[in-house]
Recover the amino acids of this structure.
């Protein structure tokens, strides 16, 4: 039996799970950053698996099961809070009516009842004249979500759950595959088991595929002059719902906007809600406005929640409930408590496991040098007419060339390829995959922030590359300060772990306050590097080509230095040659030339200088034929390395004839 459970997230899911765990004997602490910001407050409280038209099985089963638990659950809550009013949560199995404006082709659905125009108007007078009929879902209903969450919190606290409000969790510390504590703004919390219920904010802590989906809402009041409630059931229209409460409020929702955590109600959002609501139920146009608000649903890409075990045995996940957090609270609490307290996995649970977002694809990667000079994988390079050099060329082995090379070693890990690439700026995932493959790289850098926000080109990265073959180099792109970079580095480590790279402690450190030139901040970089090294990271800092800074970073324990050739994405080539030469001359750690390389000739040039490796992204991704350019960069890196090992001829001031001048035939 697990004794102490620490729950991260104080919304309805965290509280419902916490209470259930407490009732089964656990000591529970709930950490909440801002109770009022939870999506649970913003919701309308519909219990609507049918009206929401959830067709995905087993999601539909999960939702129906939860709806069926509601009566007992809310009664139990009333009992726990010592309330005489058994309905202090506003639970109301009022059914949901879904009027439509177009006659559907098939009206024989089993769980819904089709009502023709006359019937629906008798059942609910006052509907808009465009309504031609509608569906009646008798088993759906509603709960007053704000009342519910208050009751839940009271019940939780009266049962002895410690609820800590105003606590921001900054990181989840892990060691040897287990969570060992949670770092917060007020100190470290430890427990036997941890439950992550942080809703739309969850991927600030773990790289889970959850992002905010904003919903704007408003409420009206039934005018005092009306004695009877004009609406006694939820109206679920097209893109609009109207939820009448017994306390005379009428909730109207909701927009569904993919705008990140952008706050505020907008005129256009509210206008569209009011227009649709008035079309559906015209008399609302004269009702007094009561309140406007917004919230952030935690949305996964398949719109299903993430429930159950995580990559650590003492960390459980319950998040990503998207439009159905209120509905799914009781069943989530039951399944999660079964899992944590009794190690019982409900047959529904595996369908909601987080790993569905990180299944590895069969993409294979070719390595540029592995004792052979190059692996000429040209399948995805431009089709070449007839036979070309690429078709017929069989590269010699390094050993045949009388060259001794050792692998690239970074923080004790050995790599045969000396070219690293990235995943940004590609026109398609397929192009990125082909380019990574043709580049022969073994290290791919990934912007943690862009993965978190599912920025274009960063969706599904978990599946897009074969992370059992490619070493992930999480980077802190987008961080302007040392503090931000440290936080994002910690997330990056979790991201790599989730993708199966348990021992990956690499981070490409970027601290870039200036958006125009994208030049790194040397002081912030050094500060962040010192801290991250202390935390056990292998730090690969991106820096200006400053030999003194490179030295200092080496002294604080960085694994490499990554001086820029020219500004990021500029393709200008080697503009910092003299300084890079000094850095290479003095460094005892690998020097990776990063940023600014625009063409294979420049890649080769950097390698000829003696750079240990290169990182090239834009020059590949923005080439007209990116997969072909990736291959060219692969060859150029290898060529530059071999040239460096071969010892170039000295530069002479004057011409020196290629043919001997003695023994020539004269006259
Ligand atoms: N549950 C309805 C919504 O999320 O808008």
């Amino acid at each position: 039996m697990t004794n102490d459970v620490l729950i991260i997230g104080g919304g309805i899911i965290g509280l419902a799970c916490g209470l259930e765990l407490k009732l089964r004997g656990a000591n529970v602490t709930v950490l909440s950053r801002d109770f009022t910001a939870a999506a649970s407050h913003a919701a309308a409280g519909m219990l609507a698996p049918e009206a929401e038209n959830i067709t995905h099985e087993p999601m539909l089963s999960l939702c129906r099961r939860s709806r069926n638990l509601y009566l007992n659950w809310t009664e139990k809550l009333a009992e726990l809070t010592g309330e005489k009013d058994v309905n202090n949560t506003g639970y109301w199995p009022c059914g949901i009516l879904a009027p439509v404006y177009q006659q559907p082709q098939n009206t024989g659905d089993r769980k819904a009842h089709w009502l023709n125009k006359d019937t629906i108007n008798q059942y609910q007078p006052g509907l808009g004249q465009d309504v031609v009929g509608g569906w009646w879902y008798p088993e759906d209903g509603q709960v007053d979500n704000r009342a519910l969450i208050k009751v839940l919190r009271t019940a939780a606290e009266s049962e002895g759950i410690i609820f800590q409000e105003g606590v921001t969790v900054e990181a989840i510390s892990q060691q040897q595959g287990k969570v060992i504590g949670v770092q917060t703004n007020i100190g470290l919390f430890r427990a036997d088991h941890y439950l992550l219920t942080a809703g739309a904010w969850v991927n600030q802590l773990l790289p889970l595929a959850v992002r905010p989906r904003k919903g704007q809402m408003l409420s009206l009041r039934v005018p005092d002059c009306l004695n009877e409630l004009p609406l006694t059931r939820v109206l679920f229209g097209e893109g609009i719902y109207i939820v009448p409460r017994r306390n005379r409020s009428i909730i109207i929702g909701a927009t569904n906007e993919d705008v990140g955590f952008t706050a505020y109600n907008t005129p256009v959002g509210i206008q569209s809600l009011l227009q649709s609501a008035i079309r559906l139920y015209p008399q609302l146009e004269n009702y007094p406005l009561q309140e406007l608000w917004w919230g952030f649903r935690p949305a996964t890409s398949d719109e299903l929640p993430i429930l159950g075990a995580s990559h650590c045995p003492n960390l459980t996940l319950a998040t990503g409930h998207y439009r159905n957090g209120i509905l799914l609270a009781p069943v989530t609490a039951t399944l999660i408590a079964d899992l944590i307290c009794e190690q019982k996995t409900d047959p529904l649970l595996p369908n909601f496991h987080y790993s569905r977002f990180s299944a590895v694809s069969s993409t294979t990667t070719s390595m540029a040098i592995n004792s052979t000079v190059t692996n000429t994988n040209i399948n995805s390079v431009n089709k070449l007419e007839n036979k070309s050099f690429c078709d017929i060329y069989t590269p010699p082995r390094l050993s045949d060339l009388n060259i001794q090379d050792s692998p690239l070693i970074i923080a004790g890990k050995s790599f045969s390829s000396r070219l690293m690439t990235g995943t940004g700026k590609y026109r398609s995932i397929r192009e990125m995959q082909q380019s990574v493959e043709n580049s022969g790289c073994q290290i791919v850098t990934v912007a943690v922030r862009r993965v978190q926000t599912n920025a274009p080109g960063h969706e599904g990265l978990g599946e897009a590359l074969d992370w059992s073959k490619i070493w992930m180099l999480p980077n802190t792109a987008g961080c302007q300060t040392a503090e931000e970079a440290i936080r994002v580095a910690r997330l990056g480590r979790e991201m790599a772990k989730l993708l199966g790279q348990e021992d990956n402690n690499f981070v490409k450190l970027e601290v870039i306050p200036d958006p125009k030139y994208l030049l790194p901040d040397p002081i912030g970089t050094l500060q962040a590097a010192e801290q991250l090294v202390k935390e056990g990271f292998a730090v690969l800092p991106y820096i200006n080509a400053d030999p003194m800074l490179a030295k200092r970073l080496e002294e604080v324990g960085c694994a490499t230095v990554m001086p820029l050739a020219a500004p990021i994405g500029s393709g200008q080539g080697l503009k910092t040659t003299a300084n890079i030469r000094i850095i290479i001359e003095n460094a005892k750690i690998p020097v990776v030339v990063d940023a600014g390389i625009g063409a294979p000739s420049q890649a080769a040039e950097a390698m000829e200088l003696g750079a240990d490796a290169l990182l090239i992204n834009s020059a590949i991704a923005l080439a007209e034929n990116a997969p072909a350019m990736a291959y060219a960069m692969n060859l150029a890196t290898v060529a530059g390395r071999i040239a460096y090992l071969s010892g170039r001829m000295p530069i002479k001031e004057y011409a020196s004839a290629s043919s001997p001048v003695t023994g020539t035939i004269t006259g």
